Amino acid sequence: QVQLVESGGGLVQAGGSLRLSCAASGVFFRINTMAWYRQAPGKQRELVATIGIDGSTNYEPSVKGRFTITKDNAKNTLHLQMNSLKPEDTAVYYCNARYGVWSWGQGTQVTVSS
Question: Which of 34, 37, 16 is nearest to 26 (CA)?
Answer without folding.
Answer: 34
